[in-house]
Amino acid sequence: MDTNSLACLANCHLWFSKLDDLNDPFEGVYDVDTLVENMKPKDLYDLARKIQCMQRPNENVEQRTESLIKMFLDKGQRDFEYAHKQFVKKHVHKRMTEMRKKFWSFISFI
After folding, report:
1. pLDDT for the residue 95
2. 22 with 83: CB under 8 angstroms?
3. 3-state DSSP call for residue 98?
4. Digit-coded pLDDT (tens) for 15-64
């Protein structure tokens, strides 16, 4: 431990490198795929429904419910769950990329 480390400890101060300065290519990466794969079906469907509500705010609940029931009947339970997982993963990856870009553009502005 050096003087700077002791000063940080004494002053309850944390110091972190910028994400771009870290040498681990997986630093700051979220494992969305594993999180989604391990979700309980009810939680997965609830999240997919919330995403649909955000994407199509003018669609009423009955229309959304009818489309989900039709999808379930057409695909069967296993394919229905798979389709929801792919939908959630795609949406979350897209949002995370957008947030990461906004964050780094804000940081570079400072």
Report:
1. 85
2. no
3. helix
4. 777 767 777 766 666 688 888 899 898 898 888 888 888 888 787 878 87
Residue position matching structure tokens 């997919």: 48
Q: For 4-16, what is each residue's pLDDT tens digit?
A: 888 877 888 877 7
Task: Judge whether 92 and 36 are in contact, CB under 8 Å.
Answer: yes
Its sign, for the CA torsion 54, 56, 60, 66, is: negative
Question: What DSSP designation does 59 have?
Answer: S
Please tell me the distance from the alpha carbon of residue 21 to that of residue 48, in angstroms, as a whole number.
35
Decide: 81 and 44 in contact? Cβ < 8 Å: yes
Contact between 37 and 84 under an 8 Å Cβ cutoff? The reply is no
CB 77 within 8 Å of CB 38:
no
Measuring CA to CA, which residue among 17, 11, 19, 9 is closest to residue 100? 19
Judge contact between 39 and 47, C-beta under 8 A.
yes
User: What residues contact residue 30 under an 8 Å CB cut-off, 6+ apart?
Assistant: 96
